């Protein structure tokens, strides 16, 4: 019966190979479950057998406790060993640092490496690790190099809210570090001017800190929100800013009425100002006192009349981007006076209504090189003369982009003899005409293109009134004249002859286009 209940189990467990410390297992153990006849048969133990099993169980339990004591002891040893290994690995990193080739590089080379590491993007002050802070914390040599590279500390972004690992004070401290390490250089950071109910604690603390360095501000953007406190108060929004010099300020973004608060003390009548972005939401908005005559770049998101009244004062303008806004009830007309802009090189117009269509006729820009006109609405009454008016005073345009032009505009494109780049996007009501594509491929009496002889880049997208073979013929004509297009890009085309479908590219036309224009690219290839 004893043999049925138990079988003797003997085992030596060596724990230490040096002192030969170990444990000797000497127990009576039953057979495992699947092999245990007593359990499988369901036989009930006798009183004597039960007493025997209880004694064996107690011995086994005591030995298991002894094993766990040894295990706990060994785990503590392993923990100490792992800790020691980690410490040594850290020291090994230091040893590797002693031998690192980068330590031998001169400061000039390290400076170039640091520039690449920091990149050209603004540093997010809310990030746990930002490159200038990390690099300057490595060693005294690197810290000295980083502190001498003051330009890397001038471009940063102050967040609206703290991250989970930061407080407002820690962000302000980091801001102070960047301001101090950047010396007295103009800040590339665009200061967000925000006061009142809309400003949170970070905005307020950040602005208070930045005010001490107002003479270094390069760009200022006014917070624009309908809930902003200055929209419902008589207090001057720039009361915090009065008395602080803005001697480096070149760029301002803001709402026209908000900027007009600076008229009180001529806040923005500063010699350094060169770029202004204005928005408008009321036709009665006043024009802020700014040094318009010295501006080189103007961005207007306003009524056409409001924008033109400003442009008439900007005789040194080089770039003008205008997005005509829509204000209910506005009936202001564009002034008749011509804006003479001898330095204007780039103009981008987004035209919404009839007043906006008058703008090209009010410009005299003989040096204009790049023009973009986007008609925001389909106007059936529009006679198609915007481009014609612009070309009349600006015959030397080299880059032209048109979006949603009416077909009457196409006849003016050919008069731009110096044009090198042309991009056209068309609406369903005014598709790109086949006659224009044919005219592009026409040859004059001298074997040269009849129109646009200097064209190098050509892009099309939108609705068209021609098929793929017409494009292939045009590209082949340019190749035959020895003037293949350097860039020929086709966006998604939609044929007006088959509404609701994409442009169909037959295999032959695709092959001809690819051969005639090696740089040809097309989206939405759909074969017949």
Task: Give the SSE map.
Layout: H1 2-5, E1 7-14, E2 22-29, H2 37-41, H3 47-99, H4 107-118, E3 123-124, H5 131-136, H6 140-148, E4 156-157, H7 168-181, E5 190-193, H8 201-211, E6 219-222, E7 251-255, H9 256-259, E8 275-279, E9 297-301, H10 304-311, E10 319-323, E11 339-340, E12 346-351, E13 363-364, E14 370-375, H11 386-393, E15 399-403, H12 410-413, E16 421-426, E17 432-433, H13 434-440, E18 457-465, H14 468-480, E19 487-495, H15 507-516, E20 520-522
Parallel strand pairs: 3-4, 5-6, 6-7, 7-8, 8-9, 9-10, 10-12, 11-13, 12-14, 14-15, 15-16, 16-18, 17-18, 18-19, 19-20
Antiparallel strand pairs: 1-2
Please summarize what this structure is:
With 528 residues, this protein is of the alpha/beta class. The chain has helices spanning 2-5, 37-41, 47-99, 107-118, 131-136, 140-148, 168-181, 201-211, 256-259, 304-311, 386-393, 410-413, 434-440, 468-480, 507-516, and strands at 7-14, 22-29, 123-124, 156-157, 190-193, 219-222, 251-255, 275-279, 297-301, 319-323, 339-340, 346-351, 363-364, 370-375, 399-403, 421-426, 432-433, 457-465, 487-495, 520-522.
Features:
about 525 residues; alpha/beta; 14-stranded parallel beta sheet; 15 helices; 20 strands; about 30% helix
Shape: elongated
Biggest sheet record: 14 strands, parallel
Strand content: 15-25%
The helix count comes to 15
> Which spans have pLDDT < 50 for at least 5 consecutive residues?
none
> What is the share of helical residues?
25-40%
In round numbers, the mean pLDDT is 85
* Number of strand segments: 20
N-to-C CA distance: 91 Å
What structural category do the secondary elements indicate?
alpha/beta
- Computed Rg: 39 Å
InterPro entries: LRR_dom_sf
């Amino acid at each position: 019966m004893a043999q049925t209940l138990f079988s003797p189990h003997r085992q030596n467990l060596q724990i230490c190979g040096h002192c030969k410390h170990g444990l000797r297992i000497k127990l009576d153990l039953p057979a495992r479950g699947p092999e245990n006849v007593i359990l499988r048969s369901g036989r009930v133990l006798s009183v004597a057998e039960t007493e025997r099993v209880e004694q064996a169980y107690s011995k086994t339990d005591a030995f298991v406790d002894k094993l766990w004591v040894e295990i706990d002891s060994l785990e503590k040893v392993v923990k100490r060993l792992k800790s020691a290994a980690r410490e040594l690995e850290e020291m090994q990193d230091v040893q590797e640092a002693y031998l690192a080739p980068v330590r031998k590089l001169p400061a000039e080379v390290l400076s170039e490496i640091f520039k690449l590491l920091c990149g050209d993007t603004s540093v997010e002050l809310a990030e746990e690790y930002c490159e200038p802070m990390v690099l300057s914390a490595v060693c005294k040599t690197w810290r000295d190099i980083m502190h001498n590279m003051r330009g890397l500390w001038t471009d940063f972004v102050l967040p609206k809210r703290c991250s989970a690992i930061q407080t407002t004070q820690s962000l302000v401290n980091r801001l102070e570090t960047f301001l101090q390490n950047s010396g007295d250089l103009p800040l590339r950071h665009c200061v967000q001017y925000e006061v009142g109910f809309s400003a949170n604690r970070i905005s307020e603390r950040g602005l208070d800190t930045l005010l001490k360095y107002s003479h270094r501000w390069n760009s200022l953007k006014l917070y624009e929100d309908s809930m902003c406190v200055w929209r419902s108060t008589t207090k001057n929004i720039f009361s915090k800013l009065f008395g602080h010099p803005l001697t480096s300020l070149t760029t301002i973004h803001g709402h026209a009425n908000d900027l007009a608060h600076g008229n009180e003390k001529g806040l923005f009548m500063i010699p350094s100002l060169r770029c202004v972005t204005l928005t408008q939401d009321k036709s009665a908005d006043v024009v802020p006192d700014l040094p318009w005559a010295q501006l080189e770049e103007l961005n207007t998101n306003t009524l056409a009349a409001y924008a033109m009244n400003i442009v008439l004062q900007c005789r040194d303008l080089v770039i003008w981007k205008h997005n005509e806004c829509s204000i209910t009830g506005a009936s202001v007309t564009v002034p008749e006076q011509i804006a003479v802009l001898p330095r204007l090189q780039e103009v981008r117009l987004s035209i919404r209504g009839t007043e906006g269509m008058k703008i090209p006729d009010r410009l005299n820009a003989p040096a204009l090189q790049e023009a973009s006109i986007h008609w925001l609405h389909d106007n059936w009454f529009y006679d198609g003369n915007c481009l014609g008016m612009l070309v009349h005073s600006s015959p030397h345009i080299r880059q032209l982009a048109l979006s949603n032009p009416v077909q009457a505009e196409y006849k003016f494109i050919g008069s731009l003899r110096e044009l090198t780049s042309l991009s056209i996007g068309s609406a369903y009501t005014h598709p790109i005409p086949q006659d224009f594509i044919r005219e592009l491929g026409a040859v004059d009496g001298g074997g040269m293109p009849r129109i646009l002889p200097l064209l190098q880049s050509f892009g099309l997208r939108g609705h068209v009134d021609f098929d793929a073979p017409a494009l292939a013929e045009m590209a082949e004509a340019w190749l035959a004249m020895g003037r293949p297009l350097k860039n020929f890009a086709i966006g998604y085309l939609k044929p007006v002859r088959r509404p609701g479908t994409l442009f169909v590219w037959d295999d032959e036309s695709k092959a001809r286009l690819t051969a005639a224009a090696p740089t040809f690219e097309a989206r939405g290839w759909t074969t017949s």
